[in-house]
Amino acid sequence: MRPASSNREQADEGVGRGPGVRPKIAMSTRRSAVRWWLIAPTLVLFVIVNQLDKTNISVLIADHQFLSDFHLLGQPARMGFLSSVFFYAYGVSLMLWGFVVDRIGPQRSAVLGVIGWGLTTAWCAVAGSVNELYMARFALGLAEGCMWPVCNSYVGRWFAVREQGRIQAFWVNGTQIGVAVGLPLVTALLFSGGWRTVFWAYSAGSVAIREPDGAVVHRNASCRRSTERGHGELLACPAGRTLLADHALSCLPGGDVLRTGHLDS
Fold first, then answer.
1. Rounded to two decimals, what is the model's pTM?
2. CATH of 31-221 given 2.60.40.420, 2.60.40.770, 1.20.1250.20, 3.40.50.300
3. Three-state DSSP state, 21
4. Helix, strand, coil percent content, the chain, rounded in steps of 5
5. What is the rounded distance in angstroms from the CA atom of residue 237 to the CA atom of residue 230?
6. Pairwise CA distance, residues 42 & 110, whole Å
7. Which one, of 101, 113, 180, lies nearest residue 140 by Cα?
8. What's the pLDDT tens digit per position in 215-248?
């Protein structure tokens, strides 16, 4: 059996070199914390806003004006259905979004999901009847189901196997933060502007996270990870560097390379 160094030298000889490409394959990639200070916080923000849209209705059903406008006073079953209809759609969409994320990637899926949150939450704000509000809540559940598949996909792409426990604990904690922040926030918005203000504010917040999230995932999309197909393949990155992909590698902004862990570790 030939040593690994010999195999790498042969791979180097077979790589076409154009202008700006280094003469040898770079294997000593620099460890970088970019995934922790850029990707991880973005995922947490993504989850927090997702959770805010789930908690608002639990506060609104205690508001007399909200119940009066939708003729829900004294009808606890119909009030409860505002939450139930959301989670019916959410449960179904979780499975559907898994296929979507695998098909079009987490970047486009996150964009579609966030835009969906914004539009459906705005629909809740202008709903004129409880049946229309049910439909808007159902559509919101369909849109928000993207969160788990998107976050798990980014975790798999950016973090090594030995880091999975830490990053999963980090971004999943966004659900608890969302509840802790969401309940007093909804209450404050409700007292300051009424129940429609709550929906409008959350709609605007959903659109607002589209920008930082889009900026982060766009950078990741510029790198095509050939390593997903196995060992020994070549990875091309924007800065004109070609690397032997016997480790899982991710491309960082500007063409730097992040070693994210061995494929079979």
1. 0.70
2. 1.20.1250.20
3. coil
4. 70, 5, 25
5. 17
6. 11
7. 113
8. 444 444 444 343 333 333 333 333 333 333 333 3
